[in-house]
Each structure stands twice: as C-alpha cells, then as structure tokens.
Amino acid sequence: MVEVSLTIGKLDASLALLLTKDHHLIEFPTILLPNGVKAGSIVKIRCDQDLKSEQEEEVHFQSIQDEILSTFATNLPKKPVLRVKNVTQTSCVLEWDQLDLGTSSLKNLILFKDGKKLGSIPSPLTNKTSKLSGLPIDKSFKFQLRLDTTAGTYLSDEIEVNTHKMTDLSGITVCLGDFSANDPFTKEDIEEALKTMGAKFPPQEQVKVDTTHFLCTRENKQNPEYVKANEMNIPIIRPEWLKACERERRIVGVRDFYVKDCVLPDIFAKNYWKNTSKQVSPQEEKAEPELPTIPAVEEVQETTKADDEVPPAEEAAEIAEVPIESVPEIEITQSDEKLAEDIENTQQNIDDAFGEPTEEEVKKDKPVESVEVSESEPVAEAEKEVVLEEIAIEQPEIVAESTPVEEVQASTNEVANEEPQVEEVALDEPKVAAETAESHDATTSEEPAKEELQEVSLVEPVAVSAEPKVETEESVVDESVVQDITSPENDEVAGKDNEEVGQDEEDEDNADEPEEGEGEGDAGNDTTATPAATAKDKKKKKKKKNKKN
Amino acid sequence: MLPPSIASIPEAREDYPGSSLVERTARLLTIPDLGPGDLCNIHKYQLNSKKETEIGTFLYFTGVDTSNVASIAAHLQSLANLMTSKSQYWFGDKKHWKVPELSYCSYNAFSKVDMRVTVHIPGKLDVVVVNYDGKLIQDKLSSEELDRFWLETFVCGIVRAVLESDDDPDTNKVGGGLVEVRKINPFNNGIVSKELLNNFLQGFEELFFQGYKLGCTVDFPQPTLINNYLVDGFMKVIELTQTYDQALEILERLQKEEPSVISLIAQVLLLKQDEVEAVKVMNEGITQNKRDVNLLILQTEYVLEKKKPELALELAKQAVKSSPSDFKAWSILVKCYIRLGDFENALLTLNSCPMNSHREKYQLKRIVPLKNGSEDLHLPSPTDVTLDEVSNLQSNEISYEQRNLDAQLTNLPATNLKSTYAKAYDLLTDIVVKTGWEALLKYRAKVFVMEEEYRKDIRGSVSSANNGTTKEPLNGAENLTVAETTETVNEEDNSSTMAIKSPQKENFDDSTTVDIDAVTTEAVSFEDEFKRKRLCERWLDNLFMLLYEDLRVYTMWQAESLHFQAQQMEYKKTTLEWEILGSIAYRLKHFKEGSIAFSNALSGRFSPQSQREIMRYYVMERSKLLTKSSSGASNIHNYTKLMNQLNEKILDSIIKLLVWNHRWYSDFSPGLLLSLSDLVAWEGSIKIQSSVRALYSESTGVTSSDKDHIGNHGIIDMMDDLDVDYIKLYKLSNADE
C-alpha cells in the first residue's frame, strides 16, 4: 500500500495539478478529488491493489469468452438439401430446404449442373426453388447446390433429373385463370382432361414456380395471377391446348393456342370439346350398361375395368350434373359418384372404404396406361422427329464443308445481315454476329474467310443441336433477347442455362415493345413445343428472312 | 501478363546522365520506413547523331522481381530492347535511340542499403551495394550476406508493390504527383510468378522477426512483430493469391517461436471464410494471453459484425486496457459505444484516442526532384489498351474545372485530414449520422466542459483563491467588452463550434477580476456537475468545426437540389464539383446521395475517383441485396434484375479503372484485382469473359455503326490476360468451374 499527501497546485477545468513533496507534478482529474477542495488544499491518496476486482473481472471476461465460443463456434452451417419438385420435357423445378447457416453469414448460393457452374440463386435467404428451362428432351442431368458461407463451403448431394419424353405428359402443371361465361367447356372439362392426360392434378389456383402453363380465355390484367404468369413468361394459352395434347397423346406446341393471338375460328373448327363429348357419348352408352353389371365386391375386376371406364363415367356424371353433397374434393367426388353409380344399393360405409383405394389405384394405373398406348404411336413419331432433327443438324455442317469458300462467305454475310434483325436467334447472336461481322471487314482476303468457315461450321451445329434449348431459352428470356449482348454465356451450354436460373430479365432500354411482343409470341412456343416442329419453324423463318434480304 | 510496349514506359529527363543516381544516394540517409520505389536510370543517345549527345532519363518501378541480379539484368535488358527496337517520339521529335547503359536501384529497408545493378550494352554487369551514408560496401560482404541482402530487397520490393498500389493513384496523375512510375503485377506472369510467390512466402518466414524494421501504419504507435508493413504486405499477398493453406503452414511454424502470431492465423482463417475455426483460434489465443491486443481487436470486430455489440464492448474495453496507446483499440471501443447508442461514452472515448500526427499512409514519393517540373516528363499514351472516354481524358479539362471551382467547395478542411485524424473524423460522422447534429451538440455539451461553464469556473476559482493566481489585468479591460459582445452574439447561433480552449482564454482570465462576488454563489451550484465534465481535446474540437462545415455544404446542396427539382430546372455542376459533393456525402455516410453525385460526375466525363467511389457503392448495395430477405416471384424477379445490373456496373467500373491505371503505366491494382475476383466468385469466369467480349467487342458490326472508329482497343485481351494469368493461375474463387 502506498499513501501520499499531495498539494493541489492548480485547480483547472476538469484537471488539477497536484504536487508531491519530492516535486512530482501530477495531472489529476478533478472528478476524482473530494468535494470542496480548492487550490492550496492538501489531499491524501492511498493506492491498493484491488485483487478482488481483478478476480471478478477475470471471471467476467472468461464468461464472455466462453459465450463467444459457444455462440459462434458450435453452430456450423448444414449442407443444403436439394430435391426435384417437377420435371417436364424441357424444364425442371428444383427445390431445397430452408438454408441452415448456423451463425455464419451467407456469401453465395450457387447451382451446378453436371459439375458446371450455372449461376447464383437469387434471394438465397428466402428463395427455395429454382426453375431451369431450356433443357434437352429425355436427357439426364446432375444438379448440385453449393452454399458459400463465412464458415466454409458446403455442397448438397448430387441429384439426378431425367427430362421427360415428348409423350410423357405428367410434368404439365397448369394454373387456371379467368374464363368467360360462354366458353364451350367447363372447369370440370379441364380437370377431366388433366386427369386423362396424367398431368398434375388438381390444377393450381395460383401461379407458382412449377407452373408450366396458364390457362384462361380472358386476358384479365386485373388478375394478379395473370400478371404473374406474364411476368414469369409462362405461356398463357387456351385450355383447348390440353385437349390437343390429349388427342395427340403427346405434348404439342402452344403456338396456336395463345390467348393473345390465337385464331379462334381455327381452334373452334377443331372442335376440341365437342369432340370429346362425342367420343365420350358412345363410350358412355357402352359404359353405362356395363356399370351396373359389375359386382361391387369384386375389387380386382372393378378396378381393372374402372381404368377404362373412369373417364367416360366421369364425363357422364358431369354431363348429367349429378348433385353431390358435402364432398369437398373433386377426386373424391368422382370416385364417390362412380361407386355410387356402380353400387347403388351398398352401404355408405363401404362406399367410402372402397372409394379412396380404388381411386388411388386408378390414379396409379392411368399414367401407365397412357404410356403404353402412346408407346405404339407417338414414340415412333418422336423417333421420326429425332431423325429429322439430326438431319437438320447435319445439313449446315455439310453445306459448310462442301461449299466453296466464297459461297460460305456469301451466306455468312447474309447471316450477318440477318442476325441483328432476327431477334429470336438470340443465343448465338453475339458470337455469330461478332464473328461474321469480323469477316465483313475481311471478305477480300481468303484466309479470314476460311477461318470464318470453320467458325460457321462450329457455330451453326451448336445452334441447331441446341435448338430445343434455344427455343425454351427464348421463352424465358424473350424481352431480354436484346440483352443477350450483355448476357454473355451464349456460346456455352452452361451459360445458357445460367441465364435461365437467374431468369435474367434485364429491361435494357433497347428492348422495344414490338420486339417484346414478337418474343413472347415465340416464347410460348417453346417450353413444351416439339423440337422438330419448332426447329422447322425456325428454319422457315430464317429462309423467309433470307429471301427478304 | 500483357507484353510491355515502349508506350507504357514513362520517363523523366535528368540533369546529366546518372544524376538521378547521385540524388538518390544523397537521400538514402533520410529514407523512412519502406522506402521509395525502385529507380531505373537509362542512358541513351541518338543513333545517327554526330556529336556525343548522350542523355539520361529515369523512372520508378514497382513489382519487378528483384530477388537476384540475373532477374534484374534480364529486366533491364528487355527494357533496352524495347527502347532500341523502335523509334520513339521524344518531346515532339521522332528519335531512334541507342541505350548503352542502364542501372536499377532497389532499396532494402531491412538493412538500410540500396542495391544497384548496372548493365552495360554490350558488355558487363556491375553490382553495387550502397549503404545509408553513401559508401560502397559490396566488397566487404560475404556471398552469404549478399544473398541475404537480395532476399531482403526482394521482400521489400513486393511489400512496396502490394501496399502502395492500393492507394489512390489518380490524385497523382492530375495534381502533379509522382507519375513517372511503372507498376508491374508481380503475380500475373504464369509459372514465373508462382515461383515468385513461393520465394516471397519463404522470404517472409525468414524475415518475419525483422519485420518491425519496415515501419507500420498509423493505427499503431510503433511497429511490432505483428503490426508492421511486412505482415501487412504478407496478408495482402495472401488475399490476392488466396494461398491460405500455405500461409497457415508458415504461420503455424512461426507461432511455435512467437505465440502472438496466433492473431495472424485467426486473420487468415477469417479471410479463408472459415470463421468457426477462426473463433476457436481466437478463443484459444485469448485464453493463453488475455492481453493480446491484436486478437482482442480482431475478436471485437468479428463480434461486432455478428451484431453483438454488448459482447464486443467488453472485449474492446479489455483491448484498451491491454494497449492504451493504440489508436485502433480505442477506435473500436468508440465503435462499440456507437453501436450500442451510448453516444456520451462514444464521445468520451473518442476524446481519449491517442492521436498520431507524425506518420502518414505509405505512398511512393519522388526521391529525385524534377528540375523543370513537368517539362522534364515524357509521358506517352499506351496504345495497346484504350477506352475512349477513359484514355482520352484531358488534363486541361480538369484544370479548367479546378480553376472555376465553386469557392465553397475548394477549401473544405475535412478533405485533407490525415492519419488518425481522418479516422477519428470518420467515427465522429458515424455518431452524427445516428444522432443528427442538434442531438450531437447536446451530447457534447453534456460531457465536455463548454466555454460558458469554463468562464464561470475561472471566476469561481479565482474568487476562492483570493485573486492570487490571476495575471495582471493590463489590456484586459478594453478587450473584454469587445470580446464579450461578439461572444454573446456568436453563442446564440453558433455556440456549438466554440472551443473552450479558444484563443480568448486569456481574456477571460483577465476579465474575472471585475465581478467576482456576483458569481460565487452560482459557482457552487453547478460546480458538482461541472466537475464531472471533461475538457475536450483541441483536435476533437476542431473536428466538430470541420463537421459543421461539411454539414453546412451538404445541407445547402440538398436544399438547392430540391429547389431546382421543384422548379424543374437542371441542377448543373462540373464533374469536379459533383465529385467533391459526393465525397462530402460519403464522409457524412450519406451513401445514396453520394452515389448520385458521383454518377452525375461521371455523366460529365470519366473521373477515376468517382468511378472508384461509385463502385464501392455498388458493392455495398449488392451485399445489402443479398442479405435482404424478400420472397415472392416478382421480388425474385426484381432481385435478379438488380443483381445483374449491379454486377454489370461493377464490371464496367473495374474495366474502366483498369484501363485508366494502364494508361498511367500501372498494371497492378490490388484493390481492383480483389474486386474482380470477388465478381468472378459471383458470376463465374465464363460469364465475365463473355460479358467482356460482348461489351467490348472491337468488330464494328454489333456495337457501333461507325466503322471508322472503334471506341476501345485491347480490353478483351487485357481481361483475358487477367483471367488466364491471374484468376485461373491461382484458382481464385473456384474460377475453373
């Protein structure tokens, strides 16, 4: 312990000057001086080591350290869990659990396709789905999520996705919009069609990430769902499209069914709705006599037959407008109804008991059936188309190789002229355009022309073989087509989809209205359109443009 | 690495051949810290001149591999080849040079010697070591010592390169600063630079315990083993090349000898994005030594970032207790109080910050003065990479703006704050942005002794001391009345900016003798409260004044701009004026307004500072966007749109700044490289690459209809070069995916 007496030499604002007997001069805060002292007073200071406080502080500090350690060093991020939500011919919707970051902060969330970076997921903290469109038909892909955090990098398990064949309609997920009163069909017709096709059932009421088509007959800009569909570039089409698919037992192009610019007489001429009812009516007649004959107890028989009969039976029910009480879901309604017709006299309890399982079985069986049926015809068709496609792919290559340099030059010149106008050929545009444009400058010399020849042969096949992608790409990109100049990954397959993930839509100022319209028109074509058909379409278009030029 | 061209080498004429070397030798004694850039002296004469007209030129280099004589000689040789291979426009005339002799000097700050290599063409190679008082000592050195010297020189060179280039170089270009310097990226040269990197890391390990000789930043009163330029340089290199694992190995070896290295390990772990491990390491280190101020500061920063200011406060207090003379420890304590909303304590702790006025941020400086100013400078325009608006920026345009600058904006003193004062000001603006000016004044009056109180106090103390201590009231009486009247007027509206330690202090001392009795009663009543208050440090008081100035200009600008908006008139300012307004807004933490000003500035013409600042804003916005939680399809839509826009703008900014730096002979900008690799981490290098291709395609077909003129040149090459030789080389941010 030390004890000293000090004289206050000067008492200034907040600071005092203290003097010791052996002439130390100490600056001392006045706040620490006792009240009432003035210059000239003598104060006594005692200094002790405060061991107790030292200990207390140490304990306190240690507790803080422990708290920090337990708060920030125990809670590690978890690897993301990735799932498939829906798959169609050209797109798939991925879904993942809410990210668990522990105490770390998010840096980035990146989607990988077949080991290649596709791009960052937007709003990764809240967004839990991602739609990838523009995938080739009937191919398998591997997807993986990578979570970058301040506490390291975490990879999800790799999941495999097979895009559907043209004949597999199970990926179709429709959302219903506004219908006008005098439509030649009812909501039930649509639902019926969905069921027969094996598409997702029931139809959605709201546009979601996995919505593939928006069905309506009225463009109601007040309807937020309509607006959403429009924003998300979901094709907005008439429900007749469903029937067209159903009829062909394969997915058909949406081009002719746009609510916006379809040719109504053409659609009506095909008589989609009437047609079915016609088809139904004979069956119905057939079915009805059969139905009562089926003994309710023989499950096996019943279900097998039900397979065949369900649609007509339902149709019949609907047409007859049998009122059903207190049955909330249509599915149940139908089964109930059917059973009710089947076994009129059996007890209600048994009805219910059978009702659901049979329905399930029916559901299970149906897609299988449709596939079987379709295998015979449309697959063959699909194969034909593939062949067509291949031819389409090869052609430009052959041309490019065999024709003399000058010719190619000429044609590329044409391409160069054409490209900037053909907004839809967005994908390869920058590259092709850039390169062809280069060639523009150098047309006189042969060497660049040769180079260019190579380039052309390189570029073209990519363009063609990627056709289905190209198209779907556009569907999402449409208005941003012009933006392709800024969106860079055109020449890379990975890049393309990258764009998709982000659904980049940059409204660059240069995307004018008419183009948008055109783009949209084309856009819908694609998500589900047949590749060969659209490819042909494209060819035609190109040709047309060439002619114009 | 882009192949160098003759147009990317600036030169300055010297008095007589070799005079720059003599100058340099003369100044060796006074060189502080890290020292100047490497000096290259070139002798040249014209091929077909009749007389012996040898002249001498010089320039500075950074980033050259100076690890041994051979690499320097090779560098000089290639420089000579460049100069002789083509004729050069030399002050208006086309001349074909012969280069008979070149010298290269590199300062070794560890041993305070200048290492010099001279190449005679054709002919021999000389190596000279000059010590601080100009003596040649190479003959006295053993070969081992010489090797050691070269290692030291090399490490110094790299540290200079990475630390300096981070500084804002553009002020130099316009304002007559050091411009005859060529900066080479040492890490951008394929396999060679990987070797160079390894050499540097090895050198760091070997020289770690000498690091304090290089000096340190203003945050610390003096260099220590942990806080010095060597360590700073090492950290920067690690960050640039993302060689975290290698760094950790080295640091773990060093830690065995020096336990405090653990704070560096924690830092590297944080950089590596391995925060959980970092937390453990910090905890372990603090358990071992709970007065390790570096770890405490690091931990405080981390916890603050995690939004736990209560915990951070305790840590910061401990840090201050552990090292009360560090500005950094105090400043983090201030930050904690600000975050907690305890502004009184924030002001008090700010007042206690130890200030450091004698040191500045490291910057390359001229060591050889130019005799005739800028007339001696040969500053060619590189033609290999150009972008119209950037490369063609004319200095006369800028100087015109400077001459016609709004007087209000010219002399804002807050612009020129240096070292710890600038940082303290930053803290003060952190407070004012949260409280507002009026509230800040109230807090200030509450904790600091205000002038009025001071006057009362003096009177009180005088009365009680029986007039014993006051000075002679000679000329006091007259001054008094004048002073008092002006005071009272000022105090009404402006008491805030009045310092209690104002020059008038003496007057009040004198005046006190007049009416003592009147005050004595009052004195007791406020004495108690008064005693608790503190004197405001003079510098802090001054900062309040500067803050007032800044706020005044800022508020005026905002009001005017609103007014003009209401009148639907254009609010017109020059680029320079916008830039100053933007800086004010940034200083006051009004980033949005600042970014508007900067983008206005850029709409007039290119300005590197505005570009850099606005890029900072984009990056801030991006991280805000990332963490913002919003859901719904349209939000995601917007998010994507915004994110892409931001990334595009960031890329655009990076490219423009790279081109600008290239125009001024600098191919090494660590800050931009970090931004670029960050962007690559976001977008993937493929996307960046094709973005660049699309935006800066040189073919005329796509972007511009004007076929004769292409607005840019070589940018794709430049970016590809960075991509291949830098980003892919070190596999930055998983660039290969």
UniProtKB/TrEMBL annotation, chain A:
CDD domains: BRCT_CHS5_like, Chs5_N. Residues 351-383, 395-549 are annotated as: Disordered. Residues 164-259 form the BRCT domain. This is Chitin biosynthesis protein CHS5. Keywords: Golgi apparatus. InterPro entries: BRCT_dom, BRCT_dom_sf, Chs5_N, CHS_Export/Cell_Fusion_Reg, Fn3_2, Ig-like_fold. One of its GO terms (molecular function) is small GTPase binding. Signal peptide: none annotated. Pfam families: BRCT, CHS5_N, fn3_2. Its main location: Golgi. Belongs to the CHS5 family. GO terms for biological process: ascospore wall assembly; cellular bud site selection; chitin catabolic process; conjugation with cellular fusion; Golgi to plasma membrane transport; regulation of DNA-templated transcription. GO terms for cellular component: exomer complex; trans-Golgi network. The lineage of its organism: Eukaryota, Fungi, Dikarya, Ascomycota, Saccharomycotina. It is found in: Golgi apparatus. Residues 416-427, 500-523 have a biased composition (Acidic residues). Residues 537-549 have a biased composition (Basic residues). Residues 360-369, 428-453 have a biased composition (Basic and acidic residues). Residues 524-534 have a biased composition (Low complexity).
TrEMBL record, chain B:
Residues 487-507 are annotated as: Disordered. GO terms for cellular component: exomer complex. InterPro entries: ChAPs (IPR015374), TPR-like_helical_dom_sf (IPR011990). Coiled coil: none annotated. One of its GO terms (biological process) is Golgi to plasma membrane transport. This is Uncharacterized protein. It comes from Spathaspora passalidarum (strain NRRL Y-27907 / 11-Y1).
